Amino acid sequence: MSNLLNHHLQAIKLVLSRMRSNLLSSFMICLVIAVAMCLPSLFYLGVDNLSKLTDQMQNETEISLFLKLDTNTDAIAKIDALLANNPDIRQYHLVTKNEAWKQLQEKSKGNQDISDAISQLGKNPLPDAFFIQAKSADPDSLQALKNTLEQIPGVQHALLNTEWAKRLATLLGLGKKVIFFIALLLTTVLLVIIGNTVRMQILTQKDEIEVSYLIGATNSFIRMPFLYAGILYGFFGSLLAILMMIGMIQTFNYSVSEISHLYSSDFSLTLFNASLYATVITVAVTIGWIGSYFAVTRAINAIKIN
Amino acid sequence: MIQFDQVTKRYPGSDEILKNVSFSIDAGEFVFVTGHSGAGKSTLLKLIAATERATSGTVLIANQNVSQLKPSVIPYLRRRFGLIFQDHKLLYDRNCFENVILPLRINGVAEQEAAKRVRAALDKVGLLNKEKAMPITLSGGEQQRLAIARAVVSRPSILLADEPTGNLDASYAADIMAIFQSFNQVGVTVIMSTHDALGMSTKQNRVLHLNQGRLSQDLASSFNTNNLQPRETF
């Protein structure tokens, strides 16, 4: 048992000292891995954050129910009762035409043109309106609810403004698929790069491998340092990728916070996305291991035949 | 301990390198394998070290039939041998100490214990003061002694040397021979190939003479060191 542990420790020490002695080229390989990991991760972060944002917006969507202009208070009370009994509605409130008129006048006080235009109107053109929040945020059930509400007598028009959010959500779904394929392509590239790097190392270490075989090294002993090389390249590469991502997110957040301030939202990209970072590390280490495993197995067979 | 029975070896696309070779070597013997170049000396040693397999016949090492061993077991068989090559097969990218420690790393010996044994081995071949030197800075004789240190550091019970003195001048060769003899005296079986048997003090040793792949002479030694116990028994 301690024997096995010794082997592993010696292999790791050996690989680290080799990396130290070829610091620049090791760094280059890690950089390549980092960039390849960064691309799909950033894409993912972007799409993920946007889709969270649209979810939030869909939750906030209201159905506006504008009543006919000649609706009297009795009819309003009837509609009110209908809404109160509808199980799909979370909450609603009524804005009467007079309230709406006052609000409009209040809001337009600052703007001379609009307040002039309003005062020229003379009488209130606004209808009574109910503003309704549904229990479900699902676009389809919102649509169904809108249709039912439109059927109520006395209702002029029901407005559901989720079309754009729906479209965005579909686009984001498409984006996720694109990310998947980009990640797949970059994984292949990484497998080849790491495999090739390890193969080159094996070539420079060919004498050592041959001598080791002659004095009784097992396959796993020969393989181990190269497997650790692949794993460590993956590990350091992913750490570098995470650092790069944190840097980029920070820069992003400066501009994002400005934009979201304009929209009076406190939206920003999360800096420490633990599950994403864990995934990046796991994927990179696994790719490193698999790439070097194939390279070393092929090379060992070639050397043995010699 | 080592037994060849009707062993034939043929490489693909070549004639038979060894033809019907039979002999046995006991623990503690010092055996020369002689013959012209191309007579099959190296192949014979490779068959013992299990780096090659016999085309036909049986090779028994410590009562194990080498040709029937699983590939995964062969590394452990090889660890019983100390191998010394004519071209040393040293690793020139690391110093003497790191060269000698390699077999102990393979055996998984703990670092402190390994360092002790490396220094003991270097001391035995007279290179203790060159521990930090790179092999390329050593003379031919010193390089061969370094290779011997690497071969003996894991305390094998059999030393296999393929023309260890082939490239050395007479005084260096005598040094190397003296080192082998001292190992033999403490019970290590030594099997050494040479194309130049006359230059060696072979009179007191057993000689297996190969001629075009056949064992043409098996001269028993007049001086026997078998009464000494081997350090490690199979």
Keywords:
heterodimer, A: alpha+beta, Alpha-Beta Plaits, 2 domains, four-stranded antiparallel sheet, 8% strand, B: 234 residues, alpha/beta, Rossmann fold, six-stranded mixed sheet, 6 helices, 29% helix
Overall outline of chain A = elongated
**Helix count of chain B?**
6
**Cα Rg of chain B:** 17 Å
Task: Please give the count of helices of chain A.
Answer: 10
Q: Could you give a short account of the major beta sheet of chain A?
A: 4 strands, antiparallel
**Structural class designation of chain A:** alpha+beta
- The helix/strand series of chain A, from N terminus to C terminus, equals HHEHEHHEHEHHHH
Q: How does the helix and strand content of chain B classify structurally?
A: alpha/beta
| Beta strand count of chain B | 10
Shape of chain B: globular
What spatial order of strands do you see in the largest sheet of chain B? 6-7-8-3-9-10
> What is the CATH topology of the domain at 27-42 and 74-219 in chain B?
Rossmann fold
CATH homologous superfamily assignment of the domain at 27-42 and 74-219 in chain B: P-loop containing nucleotide triphosphate hydrolases
- What is the CA-atom radius of gyration of chain A, in angstroms? 32 Å
Description:
The complex is a heterodimer of chains A (306) and B (234). Chain A has helices at residues 2-21, 23-60, 73-85, 97-107, 112-121, 139-151, 163-204, 206-214, 219-262, 274-305, and strands at 63-67, 89-95, 129-134, 155-160. Chain A is of the alpha+beta class and 306 residues long. Chain A folds into two domains: 2-57 and 166-305, no CATH class; 62-161, Alpha-Beta Plaits. Chain A has a four-stranded antiparallel beta sheet with strand order 2-3-1-4. The mean pLDDT of chain A is 83. By secondary structure, chain B is of the alpha/beta class. In chain B, 29% of the residues lie in helices and 25% in strands. Chain B is built from six helices and ten strands; from the N terminus they run βββαββαβαααβαβββ. In chain B, the strands form two sheets. Chain B has a six-stranded mixed beta sheet with strand order 6-7-8-3-9-10, with helices on both faces. Chain B has a four-stranded antiparallel beta sheet with strand order 2-1-4-5, with helices on one face. The longest helix of chain B has 16 residues, at 170-185. The relative contact order of chain B is 0.21. Classes of the chains: A alpha+beta (306), B alpha/beta (234). At the A-B interface, helix 1 and helix 8 of A face helix 2 and helix 3 of B.
